[in-house]
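Quick one: structure tokens for this chain, please?
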Amino acid sequence: MKQAGALAAAGTALAGSMVSKVHAAENNVLNVGLVGCGGRGRGALKDALTADPNARLVAVGDAFPEIAAAAVRGFKNAQDFGDRVDVTPETTFDGFDAYKKVIDLCDVVLLCEVPHFRPMSFRYAVEKGKHVFCEKPVAVDALGVRSVLESARIAQEKKLQVVSGLVNRYDHNVNEMMRRIQNGAIGDVLSVRATYLTRRLWTRPRQEGDTEMMFQLRNWYNFAWLSGDHNVEQQIHSLDKAMRGFGDKPPTSAYGLGGRMARTDQPGYGDIYDSMGVVYEYENGRTIYAFCRQQDNCFNDVDNYFLGTKGLATIKPGTINDEKIPKVESNSFLQEHQALFRAIRSGGATYINNGEYMATSTMLAILGRMVCYNGKRMTWDEAFHSTETFSPTGYSWDAQSPTLPDEKGRYKVDIPGMGSVYHQVVR
């Protein structure tokens, strides 16, 4: 992955000379903007305001005005930091261009919108010189990943802090386990089993008066062009930890299988799968075996199992060869924001740019979805340079969505070996 490697090399060369921009007022206030006011956005904002007592919220944006307004009301009424919510109706934005209006007004932006839109909002933020917290995944297709890598390079040139929402990277206990694994506690890592086996997630009904674009955006998790499917939106956490076991290097190739067995009884399930299994192949036979499922009343497991030449490490319970590793208190959702604000205020002593790993882990998840959808074995380079895009022809409430329902309200689902339901377009 030439672009990712170049970014890493640039980071090494520049790290010692970084002087972080701080767009703070004379009273040391950092103005924060929130893009995407759903549950994850509200959670990220709470952590950001908790992390830095001199941060204040000045603008919010969401595709839907009622969601943006509800978030503002909730935070103004919050006992802990309601006095630091300085948002008015004039700085509460909605629509497809809301992210631009929010970013224009803030010093630090929290990008928590629907995943499809993150490459464009991240690019706009760094072009405008803003520090960024960027939720995962950072894209839903390879075109978006390549855009994010380029944006991360721009951020580095401008000395902008970039923190990823891959929260396990900021978890003290996960990091201790990874440190021991990387230092040889189980010898050389031979394989990793990455699981995210859980229940079905939410669906949202079509509201009266909704255009097709409105319905799909309200119900975004259930459409691959918006969420990336659950191998990208959710399993990415376990895949990110798995890749750390191989030095954050991507695999050479992958193949997989998947489909829908439980998501069959309502149009609200869109076009995503409910189960996937992927084999990621590395040199010398090293392998990541990745399994994700969203089905009710089934065995659940969200963990990573590292097999080495000298034993086994399991991340969630924190064991190495059945030895329990002591744990410390760790709130990784808060700690990622504390790291961001400390770096912004460090005067150049600390520089963070998580751009490379957040893009590479996203691409790892996208590769897995691609091979499950198409039934093929693909190399990393084939997937990374893919021209497949999930983008619609335009962004408006009346624009045509990339996938449309049939007369019964059902959406086409990819069938391995039969071709994609989305068009391949070079942009």
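The longest strand covers residues 189-198.
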